[in-house]
Amino acid sequence: MNAWQIAAASIAPLLLLCADMCLRGSPERRLVGMQMTSILVTFLMVLLTMAWDRYIMIDLSLALAIMSFGGGLVFARFLEKHL
Asked: What is the DSSP string of 57-71?
């Protein structure tokens, strides 16, 4: 096990906290949970890419980061109708 895998293993349990935020609470709290989940998953994918020496997969994490930003904006746009 190298340092990249240890870092990925230490970040993975934080996804449970984000899932709790996404499943319970106010809509604002769910938006924060969704955005934090996308940040953690992107970072986790980068760490695993480095750990397994599959540098071509960095493109997938970059695409996830861009798409999650757009998804968060769409969710926030629909959320403003209920505030």
From this structure: GHHHHHHHHHHHHHH
How does 53-83 read in b/e, with b if 16+ C-beta sit within 10 Å?
eeeeeeeebeeebeebeeeeeeeeeeeeeee
Which run of H or of E encompasses 47?
helix 27-51
Residue that is written with structure tokens 């709790």 in the block: 20
Q: What is the pLDDT of residues 39-56, one digit of tens each?
A: 999 999 999 999 999 999
Q: What are residue 25's phi and psi, to 5 degrees?
A: 110, -175
As a whole number of angstroms, the distance between CA 15 and CA 40 comes to 7
Residue with tokens 């997938």: 60
The pTM of this model reads 0.86
Could you give the C-alpha distances from 83 to 2, 12, 35, 53, 80, in angstroms and in order? 47, 32, 19, 46, 5
